[in-house]
Amino acid sequence: MIAMEKHRNISKIPKPSLQDAQHKTSETGITYLKENKCGLSNQPASSVQWKSSERTHHTTKRNVELRNICRDKARAIFDDKKRASLLERNLKKCVRVNGTLNLSHQNLSEVPQETWSVDLLDETEKKKMIVDFNNVDDDLKWWEFKPLEVLNLSHNSIKVLPRELGILEALVELNVENNKIGELPEEIGQLRHLKVLKAKINSLKSVPIELFKLKEIIHLDLSENSLEEIHEGLGDLVTLQTLDISRNKLSAFPLSLGYLTSLVTLNISHNQLASVPEEIQNLRGLTELDISHNNISELPPMTYMSHLMVIEASCNQIGELPTFNNCRKLREVRFGQNKIEKIDVCNFEEVPVSVLILSSNQISEVPDDVARLTTLTILDISNNSITCVPPILARLRKLTHLKLDGNPIKNIRQDVLKTGTLRILDHLSKKLKDEWESQGHPNSALNFYDACYSEESDVIVNKQEMRSGNLILCNSNMAKIPEDIISQAQDAKILSVDLSKNNFTIFPENIVTLQANLSELDLKFNLLEELPSCVGQLSQLQFLNLSHNKLKTLPDELSQCLRMREILLESNRLTEIPDVIHDLTHLERLDLAGNSINEINVKLLQNLKRLYYFNVSCNNIQKIPCELGKLEHIKELMLFGNPFRCPRQAILAKGTAAVMQFLRDKLPENSS
């Protein structure tokens, strides 16, 4: 009974709480216990003395346990802080070694505040700056610190980019893609060294105009946001090489697009665009263009985009293919799911296209001259309204994929169509051979294939055209004019000669024998690098087309062609307007587009009183002289596609009269 009573009394002793135990904490982190007052005065003296001893022993033991627990917790807290501090120091050290901070995939809802001070020195580091340089330790020296240049915050849940972003002035690359950011801070314009900005898959509805102050940016990705418009300031990003604004809600694109002459890749797919500005022709360095999945109904000519390699325009409302002439690097043309009704091969002159996708359009016929696209490896004309496939497609030796399914084809059996490209081409080859033999040619496979592929086949002259005064030898794979043809042309008193789309590297001097009557000469799309002095003997010449050659200048003897009314020199290698132009006082049209001309010599043009059409678009003209506005006889002035900033695109878009008036208004008041 006595033992039970003792146990009962001891159990009534209050236990010290953790709160009491932690009442006082020393600076070293060791927690001291508060004395426990148990109020045992009503107990008998002997009982109290005995229980007091028992209680003291029990309390002491518990106090030791609590002290150990609190000490361990204090040490744990101290160690956690120490580890956090160590981690922060190591993180700073890592950033300062390579200039990169990667916080991607960290489930962050906001940017850690320490991010903005990563370039700043703490108090300890500032003290180290005073140390003698000869006595520093092996740690990273403060003068070796590399500022933060790459910040990766991608794949988090960040909703706001703080204004402190502007502090990171050395930042070169900023990646905030795949977050929930609703807007970019205006301070982004302070990142004057920023070259790469990746902000796709966010909630952006607009971008601040300060973004267009980034004079060094080369890569801008704003895809998969909710952008409804882009400010005209986009044109100020003249160093931009890659621009991706796909998968937004854009219904129009700024005309200033034409100023982005350094652009190499442009993706504006999956928007609501109804048209593409003509200024896109100015992007002569563009290699990849994606305008797919919009509502575009037509495209401007792509003639000046000489570096274009891939164009993706599927899923639009385009009714006809644009002109790609002079796009000598173009490899892939993708126009599936549009409203194209015909294949115009003339739009692909000198284009080494290897992939042509025209599936799901409204094409009803495949012309024979598709066989001229000898570089084709993939031709997809599936899901159209084609009933007949021309056998001459068998001439496409490089063709590995020919897709014809989904067409009501009648001249190839269905079982053949299902067997694939090789069997189809073999079938077409046999049909072509049968046609060849039916026309009276020798029944020889060798002769058949030689005739199909010979590069030096006989020139066929249209005698009826010659009787009308026209000698048409275009697209004849010629490098010189046979003398017998020249003789026939002399007898026919030829007025016009068409030698376009051939392989002339040297001007055919025997054409000079036609000087008595020749008034028109067309040599576009050849390989001419210079003109001989004998061209001046063509005294009756009124029209001369030398577009798409390699000319760097014109001979002075051309000034003898006093009847000249029109000279076309588009897409050559001219760096200035040839001086000889000054003497052609009857000149009415002068086309110098697509060259490398640096300036407009107004004094040279003042003598051309009949000149009404003057085209110097897509050159390298830095400044438009105001004196040009005084040449009121010019009624059509083409200036787009040059790097000048004045007049702006808005003025150019108003037409020649507005441009000329603008230039006149800029003239000094005392100018006559």
From TrEMBL:
Specify where the region named Disordered lies, as residue ranges: 1-25
Q: Determine if Repeat is one of this entry's keywords.
A: yes
Kindly name one Pfam family recorded for this protein: LRR_8
Alphabetically ordered keywords of this record: Leucine-rich repeat, Repeat
InterPro entries named in the record: Leu-rich_rpt (IPR001611), Leu-rich_rpt_typical-subtyp (IPR003591), LRR_dom_sf (IPR032675), LRR_domain-containing (IPR050216)
Protein name stated in the entry: Leucine-rich repeat-containing protein 40
Keyword Repeat on entry: yes
Q: Which Gene Ontology terms of cellular component type are present?
A: cytoplasm
User: Which residue ranges does UniProt annotate as crossing the membrane?
Assistant: none
